[in-house]
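In response to a reviewer's request, we include the raw inputs and outputs for one of the modeled complexes. The two entities were modeled together in a single run.
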Amino acid sequence: MLSEMFLKLWNNGILQRGVWETIYMTVLSTAISYVIGLPLGVVLTVTDRGGLHPIPWLNRLLGIFVNFFRSIPFIILMVAMLPVANWIVGTSLGNKAMIVMLVIAASPYIARMVESSVKEVDGGVIEAAQSMGASNFEIVCKVLLPEAKPSLIMGAVISMVTILGYSAMSSTIGGTGLGQIAISYGHQRFNPDIKWICVFLTVLIVQIIQELGTAIAHRSDKRIKE
Amino acid sequence: MIEIRHLNKTYRTADKDIVALEDINLTIRDGEIFGIIGLSGAGKSTLVRCINLLEQPSAGEVIVDGESITALPRKELLKLRRSIGMIFQGFNLLEQRSVLRNVCFPLEIAGVKKKEAKERAMELLSLVGLADRTEAYPSQLSGGQKQRVAIARALATRPKYLLCDEATSALDPTTTRAILELLHEINESLGVTIIVITHEMKVIDQICDRVAVIDHSRIAEEGKVSEVFTNPRSQIARDLIIPRERTVLETEGGKRLRLTFDGETTAGPHIAEMILACQAPVSILQASTKELDGVIYGYTIIELPKDGHQAEKILLWLQNSGIRWKEVE
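The model returned the following structure tokens for the whole complex.
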């Protein structure tokens, strides 16, 4: 049995907006996080010992930086980064600020995901490219990233699901979306069905992201035999 | 011409230095197929990587066409590498690129226009016999086909030299033979100088003009393949030619001699003549013949009778026969 609250939320379009806001925040945060995380992950790989261009001190420094942000629980990071959000987007409230938090939390995570994908690329292929006179930049753009593409896409799916989880958490300090609806309409006003509907919708979104991502990764991978 | 002068390579690790190459001197002439043979760990892969500076030598020089490349600025080095193709044991094709785009890859790096690159790639793929697989991906090809693609790719920028690092070691004997034939053809038709790294004597046999035997980081022996084969001076060369597990029978007989035959002396029943002339029996412990460049080379290891008198007779006969021989253990 669905409650009156559900009908109210549905008829006012609040639930639908919640779904949209969750998707919007997740996708936008993932995109911006990749703008930062992808180059960071590549630099982590390239400057590592045995990498294309080892720079131990830089690798160390970036490694510590990434680990620092990754080791702080998101809920604490969020609160701590409120002033940073204020500085960047002029407010520490609402989804704009939440996206800043999500990017700060997700970029280091994505950097590590990218690093592990790129490190899977066979060293022999890199050597072959070197033997043809490819520069390191060309190797990154034409060998490492294209060869790691299926793995990068799978990493992006995992990252996106993680960010979706974070976005729900952000409702505790003013973010909107399904998480906020679950807490304020479901939990605080004693409507368990609203809670469960939000959970169901979140699971549905995760499923769609996962299935779609896996299909894209699979289709882009040329290693599979006919 | 590639000249390697006093080349040394030492890997420094925290607790000790590992010597990979020690005072290597080699000259590889234009147009030849030069083999470098050695057991694994002998340093041959490091040596071939020093030729295009995938490995930076610790000391010594590599001179390509009269120019020392060991101190080239990075940009010049990248350019030089386009004139030295390389193929590998593991093929190292780009798995996410089609066959055609793999062959186009070095041309992209060299800044060749797309259309031109495609034409060149097609030309090479027909040369290696894969004109019908251009849109396939590496995972759909057999090992031999992959190596053919790798060869086409290595030749795309019209290099003067082709380095082959254990290029046939992952292939079965029939495919190995076909790939070696292809390399031989390329050497003859395009005039590409080929440097072959291998641990298999049969590879050297089949296509090389000259060979260097590398052992424990040093060149143990170098020369024409026929000479090294018929008259190996180093223990390692003997081991590579006659694998150790095929060591000769345990007998209690007398002296053992290794007789070698080259083109002129191979024909004719020499051993039978010797036995008839000397009226003395010998045991044949081991024998082998090989064809190198259309000439039959062979060796026989015989054991002389214990009887000193008879043995003397045979030695005397051998001295006058013109057959090369040497006492062995």
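As requested, we also summarize the result in words. The mean pLDDT of chain B is 89. The longest helix of chain B spans residues 173-190.
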